[in-house]
Amino acid sequence: MFSNAIAFFLVLSLTIFNATAQYQYKPRWSPLEEGVYTIVSRSHFDLGVQTPGLVQQPVVGTHDNTPPQTWNIVPFEGGYTIQSVEGTGFAFVEPDAKKGDLVNTCEKATTWTISPVGDFFFIKFNNLAWRVDPRPKPVYSVSTRQMAAPRTVSLQPPGLFVNQQLNITRQ
Prior knowledge:
It comes from Rickenella mellea. The chain is mainly beta. It has one domain (about 35-170): Trefoil (Acidic Fibroblast Growth Factor, subunit A), CATH 2.80.10. It has one helix and 13 strands, in the order H-E-E-E-E-E-E-E-E-E-E-E-E-E. The strands form three sheets. The protein has a seven-stranded antiparallel beta sheet, with no helix packed on it. Strand 2 and strand 3 form a beta hairpin. It is elongated and about 95 Å long.
């Protein structure tokens, strides 16, 4: 009877081991696809962008009255490049960026770590962190003010560099 108990225990152990070995972890999120997302700041300070010819505009903010901005997120050398859909070009932060520093937009891009947390993705760079809503957002159009006949330019990936005053309207 004792040997039957040992045999039963061994069979049960092997069954559990096989079931565990056959289980493959499937991540909840697939890799972030290229597209338009809204980024909401989770840091305790405001971040802004500065583009030649444009007044400094908030990119992401922590205050309730600061609306989130819309960005393209594009795979780039193992990370992601964040590009403003509002027409402020590529967004990047210098590696030695400090709290309150501005994001430079028209020189180069940097990579960001994007990881899924709960119902959102988090973008992390040094001590900066943003929550990314994975739901697609509407496309915006840009009307230039410095042309005789104003025209509307639809912003498409990989983004648009701008050096003039803009009227930004939602399509």
